[in-house]
From TrEMBL, chains A, B, C, D:
<dbReference type="InterPro" id="IPR022616">
    <property type="entry name" value="Glyco_hydro_4_C"/>
</dbReference>
<keyword id="KW-0520">NAD</keyword>
<protein>
    <submittedName>
        <fullName>6-phospho-beta-glucosidase</fullName>
    </submittedName>
</protein>
<comment type="similarity">
    <text>Belongs to the glycosyl hydrolase 4 family.</text>
</comment>
<dbReference type="InterPro" id="IPR036291">
    <property type="entry name" value="NAD(P)-bd_dom_sf"/>
</dbReference>
<dbReference type="InterPro" id="IPR001088">
    <property type="entry name" value="Glyco_hydro_4"/>
</dbReference>
<dbReference type="Pfam" id="PF11975">
    <property type="entry name" value="Glyco_hydro_4C"/>
</dbReference>
<keyword id="KW-0464">Manganese</keyword>
<dbReference type="Pfam" id="PF02056">
    <property type="entry name" value="Glyco_hydro_4"/>
</dbReference>
<keyword id="KW-0326">Glycosidase</keyword>
<feature type="domain" description="Glycosyl hydrolase family 4 C-terminal">
    <location>
        <begin position="190"/>
        <end position="397"/>
    </location>
</feature>
<dbReference type="InterPro" id="IPR015955">
    <property type="entry name" value="Lactate_DH/Glyco_Ohase_4_C"/>
</dbReference>
<keyword id="KW-0378">Hydrolase</keyword>
<keyword id="KW-0479">Metal-binding</keyword>
Amino acid sequence: MKLTVVGGGSTYTPELVDGFARLRDTLPITELVLVDPAADRLELVGGLARRIFARQGHPGTVTVTGDLAAGAAGADAVLLQLRVGGQAARQRDETWPLECGCVGQETTGAGGLAKALRTVPVVLDIAERVRRAAPDAWIIDFTNPVGIVTRALLGAGHRAVGLCNVAIGFQRKFAALLGTDPAEVHLDHVGLNHLTWERAVRLGGPDGPDVLPRLLAEHGGAIAADLRLPRPLLDRLGVVPSYYLRYFYAHDEVVAEQRTGPSRAEEVARMERELLAMYGDPALDEKPELLARRGGAFYSEAAVGLAAALLGGGGPRVQVVNTYNRGTLPFLPDDAVIETQAAVDGSGAVPLAVPALEPLYAGLVARVTAYEELALDAALRGGRDRVFRALLAHPLVGQYAYAETLTDLLLAHNREHLAWA
Amino acid sequence: MKLTVVGGGSTYTPELVDGFARLRDTLPITELVLVDPAADRLELVGGLARRIFARQGHPGTVTVTGDLAAGAAGADAVLLQLRVGGQAARQRDETWPLECGCVGQETTGAGGLAKALRTVPVVLDIAERVRRAAPDAWIIDFTNPVGIVTRALLGAGHRAVGLCNVAIGFQRKFAALLGTDPAEVHLDHVGLNHLTWERAVRLGGPDGPDVLPRLLAEHGGAIAADLRLPRPLLDRLGVVPSYYLRYFYAHDEVVAEQRTGPSRAEEVARMERELLAMYGDPALDEKPELLARRGGAFYSEAAVGLAAALLGGGGPRVQVVNTYNRGTLPFLPDDAVIETQAAVDGSGAVPLAVPALEPLYAGLVARVTAYEELALDAALRGGRDRVFRALLAHPLVGQYAYAETLTDLLLAHNREHLAWA
Amino acid sequence: MKLTVVGGGSTYTPELVDGFARLRDTLPITELVLVDPAADRLELVGGLARRIFARQGHPGTVTVTGDLAAGAAGADAVLLQLRVGGQAARQRDETWPLECGCVGQETTGAGGLAKALRTVPVVLDIAERVRRAAPDAWIIDFTNPVGIVTRALLGAGHRAVGLCNVAIGFQRKFAALLGTDPAEVHLDHVGLNHLTWERAVRLGGPDGPDVLPRLLAEHGGAIAADLRLPRPLLDRLGVVPSYYLRYFYAHDEVVAEQRTGPSRAEEVARMERELLAMYGDPALDEKPELLARRGGAFYSEAAVGLAAALLGGGGPRVQVVNTYNRGTLPFLPDDAVIETQAAVDGSGAVPLAVPALEPLYAGLVARVTAYEELALDAALRGGRDRVFRALLAHPLVGQYAYAETLTDLLLAHNREHLAWA
Amino acid sequence: MKLTVVGGGSTYTPELVDGFARLRDTLPITELVLVDPAADRLELVGGLARRIFARQGHPGTVTVTGDLAAGAAGADAVLLQLRVGGQAARQRDETWPLECGCVGQETTGAGGLAKALRTVPVVLDIAERVRRAAPDAWIIDFTNPVGIVTRALLGAGHRAVGLCNVAIGFQRKFAALLGTDPAEVHLDHVGLNHLTWERAVRLGGPDGPDVLPRLLAEHGGAIAADLRLPRPLLDRLGVVPSYYLRYFYAHDEVVAEQRTGPSRAEEVARMERELLAMYGDPALDEKPELLARRGGAFYSEAAVGLAAALLGGGGPRVQVVNTYNRGTLPFLPDDAVIETQAAVDGSGAVPLAVPALEPLYAGLVARVTAYEELALDAALRGGRDRVFRALLAHPLVGQYAYAETLTDLLLAHNREHLAWA
């Protein structure tokens, strides 16, 4: 089994490699290829990857290359984990929206649109080249904004599934709080990527008893603190929103923090410099502690599980992924991409039916889906007016004057990444 | 034909009576009853109504009463135009939301929710008493928020249609700008009450040529100025939003104005005092000029047209009303109430099919519909938590901390009108 | 020695009485009179006051009366501690300024101006009646805003000194942190009432070594947490600002809290209800624990010290009070009232010289002094324009549109307390 | 008479040269030297300057040079009109403060501080070199922020006077409205540079009748519109504030505009490109119309008048300049620089006495003077803490969290211009 990681020079990669090593019974990789244009980083990360495999006695090979076609040739699965423009572009995404009093964030709001515009054309180009090199390979997209990118991939006819670590993170955390095995924890997790709510936490299986009320009663404070959301919000709603809903439910508070604190991009850039320095140490043969603070926890478990389901040949496995709606949420178009529990096997992912989504969540999901449709249109076809419309449609912008100004700022700060601008 | 006006002591009533007099060929009223608990106002308004009928040679009678059952007995149609709590409650609706930086307005946002909570139980009680007194009467609701109130009436099984003067206002204004007869102007008007966009202006019939691009090119400046919206917004979108969309597209600008200007309620209260003083003048036998500035232009034309269609016995007439969605906007529940062109006859109103709503508008319509469902739930069943949820669902609130505070403020300012609070 | 407390029915009074009892060697009161128009409260508080004196073996008498002239007749000192409009007015002071995004507070900003306008005429009337009943009595003003009220009293020729517990609070807290006797701690405390900075903390006497740098190094975190100010602010400036400077240095943060939290007035009103219920218990003969959370800590120590200095006949004592500037801060008018260390004896209070105030503080002091002059002018002479000018002059308002709106709101919410409005 | 213009390549220069030509009887220049490091611009501007002199028959020579020492050698007066960092730096000054909700402006607020930090060291270096080349020359500073720059020059012992065109602009405008000769109009103009109020408009001489009340009654609307300030502000105060007070009195409104409109720097940069293209036209021999929209109207009249007074040998002339306070405003330090009417002759400028400044203005002047002192300290001595303190002292910042963030932004955006950063 050959697996290729595009953006393999990312500092995330050792997390992934560590998972491949630990979970080799689930996903028996024989050849792992890391593809990245940044040869220096690739060297550092590839070296550590080989040492991790070696230390854990994994028999597979690890190779690195800057040549996508070569790296993807004959692959069974290709993981996409790239960041167009790097931390510098992210730093800008987190900054200029503040000029209009809007949150600066790289996966939602005006900053999220900027990232989508930069990323979609690059990902589509990569996917096309992968298709030529490995026509049957599955594409697993971990590149943000996952919802929009996955919709772009599916719309272009690729065999693609979008993946995020929010759901697996909740599963592991809740299992720890409940003192049970994560495999026993089934989430009623639904919405769009980065716009989800855990509505039930079932034990033993998808029809098991719902322990979410007990979880909130006993650990609501800790859960809320972790999400940096007010505890009464969880208690009043009886659900656990994803961390990213903080940008909606506490928007102005976040803006106030962002105006006076260091940007997340700066923190991450600092961490990345430290991590790369560590990776270069020939004595290091496991993922360092610091990597946990980089984000992306359990990403490797999620990726291994998904790849195993897509490639493994056994029966379908249930997993939270991003895929076509197909009537699951009846108020959305069939070709909207949602994030939900799906049955995944060699033929792809099909969402499981979900109880009707309450209006409090459905209203927001519908509006953000409309934004995502306009964002994708702008990413595919370009043009100032399309950017303006996507911004006006976003619930965290919504006002004419801000949409106009943010359009100008987005274009000014991203011109080098937008072929049409 | 007997027609009863509940809230007949309103200063609006002479506008309505003037229309009944002018349009008596369309709607041959023989008995007009004005019902109102405020005997003083009723006396003043009733006197003027009689003088208007007399001056125009209308043969119908005008009676006034404080007794709803008597006034409604045997009526063919009952118009509801009331304001629970009067201008004082409205003045509060326009003020306390500002404490959270949210718009203060009586039909949308937190103030609109307050009005819905005050109004729905009163209207349902009146409708129930009307049903006993006149089981076959049509109820025409002009009471705001019209969308929520109409949904409440239909949900309780009443023969009801919701009416607003926004669409007829655009029809008349566009006809004037085009130099043509209003009857020739057909609007592609769609959305929710106070959340609509004119997407096409067709001449001659629903399939006539669309002159909206020409209208915007030639008169876009005047139309935008009238709506107090930036002209480039109209040009970029190619549609004409309703005036009420200013609370969304220019929210912060409106809040800045409201913080420093007199409230609309104060202006209206002043106007009402002036109007009532005029109405008492026995020499006055027509609606005064000042009434035009009170809002509600063409309300009587719209009401006469709708009543004539419901009661007239001819074929269906096409008119913009508020009624059940029934699949017209497929992304909304069938029992959502939308505002759109409908075929109206003695059996009620059925929406005409409309072209797919663009995501830029559909996203907002879906979200506000979700809010309206939660608002109606709060109005019918009460409880602090339901109020909180409706506020959190509203796109002009949306944040946890504001929803909490606004819930407290709403309850503090409306306790006397909320039986459960 | 006869001492009269105007506003003696306040829930604060037991704090004062407890101090009189404990410190009877410093201030040998023979007759204590509590004056208050609220007979019910006065009864409860007066009963507890007698029981506190009895328990501690204090030989003085405690009487209560609603008759100011009788209560003040022959008094040696009269303490003013009243609140015109009660907690209800305060609650409004804390609320309506938020409509303009301005802090809601009863001693500064627009709310502080409202309180000044309500209070100054009442205090001047009381002082005039005291002068007639006891021409030689000293008036000790603890009524907020102390700076403006003291300036009004001095301007009308009264023998008055203004008192606040901020300085004594810092002295006690610093002494505790340093593990030393409060009497050893001398503060370089300077500015205006509620706008002061501790610039040095000297041990042993006004020329002792300055331990503030050490105090900040060792306890800066605790001091900052107590003031709810960011620690780096203290470190960067090397001074300790009064708690009230939080309304300046963290204005927007306070507004955000006020918009979503309960008002201080509500908390205090709840506490007052509890306290009064306790005071009615005939078994209670000491000040209850809860009173400490009411604010006003060490008020009695400060009041006893000041009264003893004014009446005691010994040499002058150095104490922080509010009195005429007389060139102490050379950039302020001589008749501005400042808060600073003063030599106090039977002839009154004379400020000690202070090192030049740094521009960072002097600029703010000068601007607030200008506001206070305009506020006093508005309080004495009335008129919408004077209120507007005071608001425009206040650094927490400063903008035209807000000054206009806040003028209207101030008048609307305080009309019953403003004879001229 | 030799006159040297440093920054002579500015697009402003033709305005100045036109004035020199028209007013040659007042100021008989024989040699005009334009000094600028930008040879291209200097060539264009110098050519036009020669053509203007030629067309108007002015006998003086115009030379251009990049060598300051040569250009200044033997000069009688040196005008400073430079912009360190050009329009690009200004564009940044107008942008990054918005991230904290603070006005972006190059002469006040955080942007004004940035400009002061960039400019003061450069101007002091130039002045030192001028002193060596022409020890007796007068330095006329037109470089912003004029108040801080002039204080820096005077503090370093230079023969310097600061000049701004606000006062002469009002004089000309009022004269036009009154239909009288500007020379007849005497202003009671007082405050700091860009923080002034016209308190009286006297006809015929400094003791003539005050026609400001009449001017406001008859032309208040036009004056307010021109300043973009609300007319009632002028009526209530009975004074005319400088245009720059809009950044104080309508701060939030300006921020809202800046967030959604093009920056002034962008407009000016566009205009400069157009102007330079015009200047290159050998047929052009007068200042083009467009230059009037560049700002700086009547700058040449003011400069000619000032230079004539300093160099002319006649008795003193009264003119509005920036110079040492020397007790004129008794609440400011003697060495603060104020902007006021002064008697100017060959020995320099001495302020005329002014009536006491009302507290409403004095409070703001005192606070901004404190800021200017801290700003100058930061400009001369550098260091993050000094920048922080200046920002905390500024009335348009004032809050801790913003001061911290703005310090970081200021340093990040100006590092190349700050030797110590």
